Amino acid sequence: MSHDQVPVQYVEARRALLDALTALRPHLDAFVLIGAQAVYARTAGRLPGYQPFTTDADLALDPGRLAALPLLADAMLAAGFEYSGEPGIWNRRMLRAGFAGDIAVPVDLIVPAQIAAKAGRRGARLPGSHGRTAARKSVGVEGALVDHEPIVIDSFEAIDRRQVRVNVAGPAALLVAKAHKLGERLGTPQRLIAKDAGDVFRLFEATPLNEMTRLMHTLLNDDRSSQPAVVALDYVRTLFTTPRAPGTQLAVQALDIAVDQSTVTTTMTGYAQDLLAQLHQSEASR
User: Fold this and answer.
1) Which terminal residue of the chain has fewer beta carbons within 10 Å of its beta carbon, N or C?
2) Residue 104: beta bridge partners?
3) pTM over 0.85
């Protein structure tokens, strides 16, 4: 899909993300783009019949790499975002001619729970004067600290020539995060979102199995990411290794029009089984 075909809400969402990244530029060494925006950045140009955009953005951060100034809250406010009242969640509402209503664009600032200060239930205690509400804690995103590389994020508008180079989570980190998000909701099926399983399909389809295995080993061998990765692999087994597994069924639902059901099922189950088998084999050979 060319930039002039991108729906207006996603054009505005990308503009808001660029505004946030620009305002946070002194801190960019501390941030890694995660979530659906990262999945789409890594799979751009693939699956043309499947919606490749999203309106929300998630940024993981390493508190130890933050600059002293500007304060995160000040930077987000200066970029036109409002504090939601919930730690780490920043909202922006944008108006666009020809679009009914306003466009809500949330950006979440997230500290991986494994490296976050233990104090506080949701808000992340940040160093210096950054405070305890600018970012929130979350389990499952720790892999972004280990598996990432810089990618240039640009605008969907010809008149906006901004480009921001930012660290983007790699496929293993994104798989771990998506597995946690889906797995933690298995007990409340009404909270499961098909698009999250669709994102896992995108990762499987775009990433050679040997590369995913290598990167997953990296996560398993790093103290910051090993425990969440182990849990995530258990979720992968539950979610994706059989045709009737909940994650496989959600992926079929998400990709209903874009990809044949048998292709989705074969990809999800085969890739998940092979990934787990390769990891088990390499562990057994040590």
Assistant:
1) C
2) 93
3) yes
Q: Is 210 exposed, middle or buried (0-12, 13-18, 19+ CB in 10 A)?
A: exposed
For the chain, the domains span 3-169, 171-284
Q: Write the DSSP symbol of residue 285.
A: T
> pLDDT digits over 52-102, tens only?
667 899 999 999 999 999 999 999 999 999 999 999 999 998 877 666 668
Nearest to 63 by CA among 113, 11, 7, 12: 113
168 DSSP assignment: E
Amino acid (1-letter code) at residue 272: A
| Helices 226-240/261-284 angle, 10° precision | 140
Selection from 278, 148, 132 nearest residue 224 by Cα: 148
- Sign of the four-CA dihedral 194, 267, 273, 211: negative
Q: Yes or no: say if 43 and 205 are a contact pair by the CB < 8 Å rule.
A: yes
Question: CA 202, 3, 49 angle in degrees (round to 5)?
Answer: 35
